[in-house]
Design goal:
It is built from two helices and six strands; from the N terminus they run ββαββββα. The strands form two sheets. The protein has a four-stranded antiparallel beta sheet, covered by helices on one side. A two-stranded antiparallel ribbon has the order 1-2. The protein is elongated. The protein starts with a strand and ends with a helix. The model has no long low-confidence stretch (mean pLDDT 94).
Length: 118
């Protein structure tokens, strides 16, 4: 298994030996983006220190976006997308934020409707 590190200062990603990786991992800030659009909801995009491509030949998958909603948006909770490039991960994070913001607006609309009928 290859071990990967992301040097935030140089923006370099490289495969390294286990000891180098473990020293890096202890202190690494792996977040590329993190947003909390409302109470209980977080969209997080991180560098994955291990390749998640399952051995395909298109290169390593080292980035992941996930939605955590603590039950606020159950249909989106723990949704995840993985990417081969940092640029794709940033775009994916933005797309996830759009999806979350739409779901929040819909949830609020439904709550207002329920209150009016109440």
């Amino acid at each position: 298994m290859e071990h990967w590190i992301w040097d935030r200062e140089t923006d370099e990603i490289k495969s390294v030996d286990f000891m180098t990786w473990s020293r890096w991992y202890e202190k690494a800030n792996r977040h590329l983006a993190k947003d909390k659009p409302c109470e209980g909801v977080m969209v997080s995009t991180v560098f994955l220190p291990g390749d998640h491509s399952l051995g395909d030949e298109d290169g390593p998958i080292l980035w992941e976006t996930m939605i955590f909603s603590d039950g606020v948006l159950p249909h989106l909770d723990e949704s995840q997308w993985r990417y081969r490039s940092k640029e794709d991960a940033l775009a994916g994070h933005a797309n996830a934020m759009v999806e979350v913001e739409q779901a929040i607006r819909e949830r609020e609309r439904m709550q207002r409707t329920a209150e009016r009928r109440g």
